[in-house]
Amino acid sequence: MLKFDITSEYKNGFARTGIIHTPHGDIRTPAFVGAATRATVKALTMQEMRDLGSQAILANTYHLLLAPGTDLIKEAGGLAEFSSWHGPTFTDSGGFQIFSLPDVKITMNGAKFKSHINGDKFEMTPESSMQAQWAIGADIHMAFDHLAKSENHKDMEIAMRRTHDWLDRCVAEHHRLAKIHGCDMPFEGPPERGSARMSGARPWRRAERTQPEKGILSHEQYLYAVVQGGTFNDLRAESAKYCASKDVDGFGIGGVFTADGMDEMLKTVNAILPKEKPRHLLGMGQEPIDLFVGAEFGCDTFDCVGPTRMARNGSLYTNDGRINIKNAKFIHDFSPVMPECDCECCKNYTKAYLHHLFKTDEITAKVLASIHNERFVVHIVDEIRESLQNDSFENYKETFLNRYYNN
RNA sequence: GCUGGAAUCGUCUAGUGGCAAUGACAAGAGACUGUAAAUCUCUCGCCUUCGGGCUUCGUAGGUUCGAGUCCUACUUCCAGCA
Fold first, then answer.
1. Based on the domain organization, do A237 and A361 belong to the same domain?
2. Which of these, A292, A308, A285, lies nearest to A372 by C-alpha position?
3. Which nucleotide's C1' is closest to A310 (Cα)?
4. How many CA atoms lie within 13 A of A239 on its CB side?
5. ipTM of the predicted structure?
6. Are residues A87 and A203 in the same domain?
7. Catalytic site residue A303?
8. Is A165 a catalytic residue?
9. Based on the structure, what is the number of domains in chain A?
10. What pLDDT, in 10s, does the model give residues A16-73?
11. Residue range of the domain that includes A174
12. Catalytic residue among A92, A139, A145, A249
């Protein structure tokens, strides 16, 4: 079982701070997890990710299945080793991507789809997603879920029930694979400070483990169930109950697209999910309000492609709202993107310079912008964690959001 | 000097008698939430009460109901020959 220590609980009964102990190191929560879909955070090196304070990354099973193939990642020693991240890792199941493709056929077994790269036909099932994720070897896996994009209650209910059926199969397959990998021993707790596992230099491996099959990743891997139900809180409650009853290590909350109504939904879901297991809010974090509301109502980790995608497109976060660095008004602006920011971009470069890099399509433009945006969201969640611990969350939230959204 | 060719929106470019006139780039702005995203959308002669109005294809004339397109002259540029 994944070890999760709750270090403080907030007075509203939902928010908390904690530490998730993974085989590749600890995650102090709440935490923003960098989206490294294809085993890389676009435009950034893993060293840059470490330097900007990222604690963990999330890769995608669908993308890694298509390229370079999950067996190759296993051969390389797993996601952390392959990518040189050497820290805590998550994988998404592939459900979200597959159900975003144009030609998806849902079958009894799972979902049939075509590669967006070359049209190759694939079928993904709960079992194959688990197998792929075990080959990729992230510390935390997501159950294969059906994300419906409908506004219709009946459609959402059908998708939710399918997600629940698939969850049972995911759990069974996960435990089968855990046994094969020699990871069925109880987790013994966090490593000692200064150990290889704490430093993150190498994947942590247990000393007294039965010798695994050759080529099999030997570290513990954990499974999160994914709560669905869309915008319907009765379905959310049902889904949370179902997921809570399963033998999983934590929970993903999926199918959320906007902060509107998210507070009520999270109150419903997180009141049902067991407190002692971590919760990941899937895909949310492009808007600062997502992070505040998410943490306030009991989510421990977040991932989102928004910050880096917007960075590549020239949209940069500041405490006064987003700016488009490509706008002509920045041609002569020799101040940093955000003077209060401690990132490499803001400490060393001006808006005028960044504007120039973007207008001339220099690669560095995307690098520096990505460093800044990723640091911005990582920092917000770090501050949220601090403020929850010293009981200043409400004040921080109000001050931040007022300034961000009223400028 | 002679001969031939060419001049179209910031740039390059399509357009041989019936549309403010093609496409690309540049420029201006917007979008982006478990990344089919180094992507996508809009604007791009001037004015507009969004119906339309006005002025445009080197310059000046001409032919024609109608000219970026045909004719004449001029200007500039390019190539070749002197």
1. no
2. A308
3. B32
4. 36
5. 0.87
6. yes
7. yes
8. no
9. 2
10. 999 999 999 999 999 999 999 999 999 999 999 999 999 999 999 999 999 899 999 9
11. 3-304
12. A92
